[in-house]
Amino acid sequence: MNHLSDPFLLEWLLKLRSTLKAWFAGRRPPVRRSSNRQKGDSGELLAYHFLRNNGYKIVARKYKRRSGEIDLIGWDNGILSFIEVKFRNHLDHGRPEEAVKRHKQ
Protein backbone atom coordinates (compact mmCIF):
# COMPACT_ATOMS: atom_id res chain seq x y z
CA MET A 1 0.00 0.00 0.00
CA ASN A 2 1.24 3.47 -0.84
CA HIS A 3 1.08 5.43 2.42
CA LEU A 4 0.62 8.70 0.52
CA SER A 5 -2.77 7.43 -0.64
CA ASP A 6 -3.88 7.52 3.02
CA PRO A 7 -5.76 10.86 3.36
CA PHE A 8 -5.17 11.18 7.12
CA LEU A 9 -1.44 10.61 6.81
CA LEU A 10 -1.20 12.93 3.81
CA GLU A 11 -3.02 15.70 5.72
CA TRP A 12 -0.65 15.27 8.66
CA LEU A 13 2.42 15.35 6.40
CA LEU A 14 1.24 18.53 4.67
CA LYS A 15 0.75 20.25 8.06
CA LEU A 16 4.19 19.10 9.15
CA ARG A 17 5.73 20.43 5.93
CA SER A 18 4.05 23.81 6.42
CA THR A 19 5.28 24.03 10.01
CA LEU A 20 8.85 23.10 9.07
CA LYS A 21 8.92 25.58 6.17
CA ALA A 22 7.81 28.37 8.50
CA TRP A 23 10.34 27.31 11.12
CA PHE A 24 13.29 27.28 8.72
CA ALA A 25 12.20 30.56 7.13
CA GLY A 26 12.55 32.21 10.56
CA ARG A 27 8.85 32.86 10.94
CA ARG A 28 6.90 31.82 13.93
CA PRO A 29 5.26 28.42 13.32
CA PRO A 30 1.46 28.21 13.24
CA VAL A 31 -0.34 28.02 16.57
CA ARG A 32 -0.11 24.49 17.89
CA ARG A 33 -3.01 22.51 19.22
CA SER A 34 -3.20 21.71 22.89
CA SER A 35 -1.27 18.66 24.01
CA ASN A 36 -4.56 16.87 24.80
CA ARG A 37 -5.79 17.48 21.26
CA GLN A 38 -2.47 16.25 19.86
CA LYS A 39 -2.70 13.10 21.99
CA GLY A 40 -6.27 12.56 20.82
CA ASP A 41 -5.26 12.97 17.18
CA SER A 42 -2.40 10.50 17.69
CA GLY A 43 -4.79 8.01 19.24
CA GLU A 44 -7.22 8.40 16.35
CA LEU A 45 -4.41 7.82 13.86
CA LEU A 46 -3.32 4.67 15.70
CA ALA A 47 -6.92 3.42 15.84
CA TYR A 48 -7.45 4.22 12.15
CA HIS A 49 -4.41 2.21 11.07
CA PHE A 50 -5.17 -0.63 13.49
CA LEU A 51 -8.73 -0.99 12.21
CA ARG A 52 -7.70 -0.77 8.55
CA ASN A 53 -5.03 -3.41 9.10
CA ASN A 54 -7.67 -5.63 10.71
CA GLY A 55 -10.15 -5.52 7.84
CA TYR A 56 -12.29 -2.45 8.53
CA LYS A 57 -13.19 -0.19 5.62
CA ILE A 58 -13.08 3.26 7.18
CA VAL A 59 -15.56 5.53 5.39
CA ALA A 60 -15.37 8.68 7.56
CA ARG A 61 -13.13 10.38 10.09
CA LYS A 62 -14.06 13.18 12.46
CA TYR A 63 -17.65 13.21 11.21
CA LYS A 64 -19.17 16.37 12.68
CA ARG A 65 -22.81 17.15 13.34
CA ARG A 66 -24.45 19.75 15.54
CA SER A 67 -24.82 17.13 18.27
CA GLY A 68 -21.11 16.21 18.27
CA GLU A 69 -18.37 14.34 16.47
CA ILE A 70 -17.84 10.68 15.63
CA ASP A 71 -14.15 9.82 15.48
CA LEU A 72 -14.30 6.97 12.95
CA ILE A 73 -17.04 5.27 10.92
CA GLY A 74 -16.26 2.00 9.23
CA TRP A 75 -17.60 -1.27 7.86
CA ASP A 76 -16.56 -4.65 9.24
CA ASN A 77 -18.12 -7.82 7.78
CA GLY A 78 -21.28 -5.99 6.72
CA ILE A 79 -21.69 -4.16 10.04
CA LEU A 80 -21.46 -0.37 10.10
CA SER A 81 -19.50 0.69 13.21
CA PHE A 82 -19.37 4.10 14.87
CA ILE A 83 -16.09 4.30 16.76
CA GLU A 84 -15.23 6.65 19.62
CA VAL A 85 -11.48 6.75 20.29
CA LYS A 86 -10.21 7.43 23.82
CA PHE A 87 -6.44 7.60 24.18
CA ARG A 88 -4.72 7.14 27.54
CA ASN A 89 -1.04 7.28 28.49
CA HIS A 90 -1.90 5.86 31.91
CA LEU A 91 -4.99 4.89 33.88
CA ASP A 92 -4.82 7.61 36.58
CA HIS A 93 -8.05 9.13 35.24
CA GLY A 94 -9.78 5.82 34.59
CA ARG A 95 -10.07 3.37 31.73
CA PRO A 96 -10.85 4.72 28.24
CA GLU A 97 -14.24 2.99 28.08
CA GLU A 98 -15.26 4.73 31.32
CA ALA A 99 -14.73 8.11 29.62
CA VAL A 100 -17.39 7.51 26.96
CA LYS A 101 -20.44 9.41 28.17
CA ARG A 102 -24.01 8.17 27.80
CA HIS A 103 -24.85 10.43 24.82
CA LYS A 104 -21.94 8.88 22.86
CA GLN A 105 -23.19 5.30 23.39
Radius of gyration: 16 Å
How many strand units?
3
* CATH class category label of the largest domain: Alpha Beta
**H/I helix tally:** 2
Which segments are poorly predicted (pLDDT under 50) over 5 or more consecutive residues?
none
Description:
The protein is of the alpha+beta class and 105 residues long. It folds into 2 domains: 1-32; 35-105, Trna Endonuclease, Chain: A, domain 1, CATH 3.40.1350. The protein is built from 2 helices and 3 strands, in the order H-H-E-E-E. The chain has helices spanning 7-24, 35-53, and strands spanning 57-65, 68-76, 79-83. The chain has a 3-stranded antiparallel beta sheet, covered by helices on one side. The model has no long low-confidence stretch (mean pLDDT 77).
